[in-house]
Design a protein that fits this description.
The protein is built from 17 helices and 13 strands. The chain is an alpha/beta fold. The two termini are 33 Å apart.
Length: 429
């Protein structure tokens, strides 16, 4: 077992979910991009760690996955995708004993050669994303997403000194724990290295050899410019030349997207498909997001000062919104998806095919009722800002449990029409 200093650990929202599930289930798979904190979170719950990025341990696991599991439990199998046979070994072990709290698997990629068995019914998957604003400790949350989702018209209140420039700094500081601890200069170098290694090493380790690996970064830059939009992949493809590359073929860009999704570096929000109401004409196009808005900001050459003053040059911005607005929405989306997962809800976006109505985030409960959220960079909220929320309330009635505008303002309150206005820093799980 590896020793570790637990004192530096920052509690994560997913901790509660892991504790509840691991107390009743034999095996969990914690999934997310490299650097998100999976290992630090998982190792607090185990006695033994099998690190498959260690060559010696990997060789032993490849030789006999079942033998490798003959260790004191609970056991963490870190970077399990490097030896896919470990997944099947865990499944077989769980078949023999369904006792809870045996195995935690942590993976930063979906392997190309999938395990023989999906693990359905034996291994439950849990997604882990970069740190939310609440986890970063930027302010004490006063408004709970779970309470908003309850349909009880939760009391909304609280104030914060967190303002526009602070959100810009949080966008570029990253939600990856190890990166955000560094100085601004070191953060930039760390993110640049993270992206370069993803292309030079992770993509190749995944078994994909692109003829021009740097072209992957050009495509990621074009994708970053489309953050928080439903821009077509064809438009993103043709925008690659703006970022200094040659237009890749459609098949090549599909390959880029597939491998980056399998590395958890893309985290698009799917379009909402309501299952029990009369809403029609909704588009199913996903809304584009990278795993962390800091990656997008870096790819677009934007630091916090440039974001606030709008001095980013060469960015591909496909809609009438500032780049800061797009990345602020991505930052809020990142937090909301974590809070929604903790509340056993799913996150989508809504956009009609004609584009007449668009709602940034739809959080859907298990009973299909929804919480609707709009994200606005402006700290002040007027009637025009809530018109799509009011449209949805008129269309769906009680199926909309609450409606919220998330802003960069300083005061949380409810408008006279009942719609909540919540500063992003004050929204928590």
């Amino acid at each position: 077992m590896h020793s570790t200093d637990m004192s530096a650990y920052v509690p994560r929202v997913v901790d509660t979910e892991l504790d509840e599930l691991f107390a009743e289930l034999p095996a969990l798979s914690l999934e997310g991009p490299k650097g998100v904190g999976k290992t630090a979170t998982a190792r607090r719950r185990v006695r033994t760690i099998i690190s498959l990025d260690d060559e010696q341990q990997r060789v032993l696991a490849e030789a006999s996955p079942a033998q490798a599991l003959l260790v004191p439990m609970p056991v963490l199998i870190d970077e399990w995708q490097r030896v896919p046979g470990m997944w099947d070994a865990v499944r077989r072990s769980v078949d023999e004993s369904y006792a809870p709290g045996q195995y935690l698997l942590a993976g930063s990629a979906i392997p190309r050669d999938l395990p023989v068995h999906s693990g359905a019914g034996r291994i439950v998957q849990v997604r882990m994303r970069p740190m939310t604003l609440a986890e970063r400790g930027v302010a004490t949350p006063t408004v709970s997403l779970r309470a908003l989702l309850s349909g009880t018209r939760a009391v909304v209140g609280g104030t914060t000194e967190f303002a526009l420039a602070d959100y810009a700094r949080e966008i570029v500081a990253s939600g990856f724990p190890a990166i955000r601890r560094q100085s601004a200069r070191t953060q930039r170098r760390q993110i640049a290295s993270y992206l370069q290694l993803a292309v030079d090493r992770d993509v190749r380790e995944y078994g994909v050899n692109f003829r021009r690996p740097e072209q992957v970064l050009h495509w990621m830059s074009a994708y970053a410019g489309a953050t928080s939009t439903t821009t077509s992949l064809e438009k993103i493809r043709t925008a690659v030349s703006v970022r200094g590359g040659d237009d890749p073929s459609k098949l090549t860009t599909l390959a880029y997207r597939e491998v980056l999704e399998r590395l958890w570096l893309l985290d698009a929000v799917p379009g909402w498909a309501p299952s029990r109401n009369a809403l029609t004409r909704l588009t199913q196009a996903p809304k584009h997001h990278l795993a962390d808005p800091a990656l997008a900001a870096h790819l677009l050459g934007a630091d916090a000062t440039a974001l606030v003053h709008g001095t980013v040059s060469g960015a591909f911005v496909p809609r009438h919104a500032t780049l800061l607005g797009q990345l602020f929405e991505s930052l809020v989306t990142q937090s909301v998806r974590v809070y929604a997962q903790a509340a056993e809800a799913n996150t989508y976006h809504l956009r009609t095919r004609e584009g007449r109505q668009e709602i940034d985030l739809i959080v859907q409960r298990h009973d299909h009722r929804v919480l609707a959220l709009e994200v606005k960079l402006n700290p002040a909220v007027n009637d025009d800002d809530v018109r799509h929320l009011r449209w949805l309330q008129e269309e769906l009635g009680d199926d909309v449990v609450d409606a919220v505008v998330v802003t960069t303002g300083r005061q949380a309150y409810r408008r006279d029409d009942g719609i909540a206005v919540v500063p992003a820093a004050l929204l928590g799980p």
